[in-house]
Amino acid sequence: MLLQNRAVFALGLRMCSTHVMKGPLMDTARPNSDMSEFRKVFSKAKHIAIITGAGVGAESGVPTFRGENEKWRKWQSQDLATPEAFSRTPSRVWEFYHYRRELALDKKPSAAHLAIAECEARLRKQGRSVVVITQCTDDLHRQAGSKHVLKIHGSLMETRCVSCGHVTVNKRSPICAALKDKGVPDPDVPDAQIPVDKLPRCGESDCHGLLRPNVVFFGETLDSHILTKVEHEMETCDLCLVVGTSSIVYPAAMFGPQIASRGIPVAEFNTNTTPKSEYFTYHFQGPCGTTLPPALAGHESEGI
Ligand SMILES: [Zn+2]
């Protein structure tokens, strides 16, 4: 098992890279940006794991809520996306998530989403596979056509009942009457202070419990069923792409370096280098919607 000691894998932000062992194949020449060399490796790969982060969604216009300037009212996501904030002020946290749901519902897949989905469909016909392991909570990979998607941070378009635990897909807009036109992000907008019985409630018979977004809040552990699937993919992939992630949100930030430590080629596609770039074989700099389509296009050796 690669993800030893799962108990430590609570979602969190860390700004240093000391938590990951350096791979055995580290050398000073890494990473390189030789696309033709990457394409040769890509043409031989049978099982490709693509780890995606907020940068992919950002190219569709979905805000990342990671930067100093990306606040909702006066808060950053790590102030609101916590179990403590939800239990203290569920109305405010629901306003924040209502705002994010409405934004995400309005967006279309980017060129990067489409390139990944097209690659999966094409390689499937060749008996090869692509899995997307995403930190994004929007639904854009699936909208683009990706079939094999592991959403490690949950989904904005699902709810979970805090009483009975029932999880359900919910794309209603607005999700409940009381949230209609709420969630305006301007800093001087007061809290709507919606009574808790008017917030989204469970539809299971006799439950009527409070619903929460089915996303992993900061400080919460990742879903163990998803983690088991991620472990399997990390152990079996023969090529990994790390796309549009700043590699500072744990535990996802360590997935790429762990795969690299097995001697598997890892290629990073991002607008900047990241704290993890030095662990990877390749780094392709620029918007993912520009760098990814030629990287994942049909190779002459595919024959179809
Ligand atoms: Zn319930």
Tell me the strand percentage band. 15-25%
CATH class of the largest domain: Alpha Beta
Overall pLDDT score = 90
Number of extended strands = 11
Q: Which percent bin holds the helix content? A: 25-40%
Spatial arrangement of strands, main beta sheet: 4-3-2-8-10-11
Broad structural category:
alpha/beta
Number of helices: 10
- What fold name goes in the CATH topology slot of the largest domain? Rossmann fold
In CATH, the architecture of the largest domain is: 3-Layer(aba) Sandwich
Tally of distinct domains? 2
Give me the strand/helix succession.
EHEHHHHHEHEEEEHEEHEEH
Give the low-confidence spans: 15-27
Which cofactors or ions or other ligands sit in this model? zinc ion
Overall morphology: elongated
For this structure, what is the CATH homologous superfamily of the largest domain? Answer: TPP-binding domain
What does the radius of gyration come to?
20 Å
Q: How does this model look, in words?
A:
Its main location: mitochondrion. GO terms for molecular function: histone deacetylase activity, NAD-dependent; NAD+ binding; protein-malonyllysine demalonylase activity; protein-succinyllysine desuccinylase activity; zinc ion binding. Belongs to the sirtuin family. Class III subfamily. There is one protein chain. This protein has helices at residues 35-44, 54-58, 77-80, 83-88, 90-105, 111-124, 140-144, 224-236, 255-260, 288-296, and strands spanning 12-13, 47-52, 129-134, 149-151, 154-161, 167-169, 211-215, 239-243, 249-250, 266-270, 282-285. A hairpin with a 5-residue loop joins strand 5 and strand 6. The protein is 29% helix and 16% strand. The strands form 3 sheets. It has a 6-stranded parallel β-sheet, sandwiched between helices. A 3-stranded antiparallel β-sheet has the order 6-5-7. The radius of gyration is 20 Å and the shape is elongated. By secondary structure, it is of the alpha/beta class. It is built from 10 helices and 11 strands. Residues 15-27 have low confidence and may be disordered. The chain has 2 domains: 1-62 and 109-153 and 222-304, 3-Layer(aba) Sandwich (Rossmann fold), CATH 3.40.50; 63-106 and 154-215, SIR2/SIRT2 'Small Domain' (2-Layer Sandwich), CATH 3.30.1600. The structure holds zinc ion (ZN). Zinc ion is lined by residues 161, 163-164, 166, 202, 204, 207, 209.
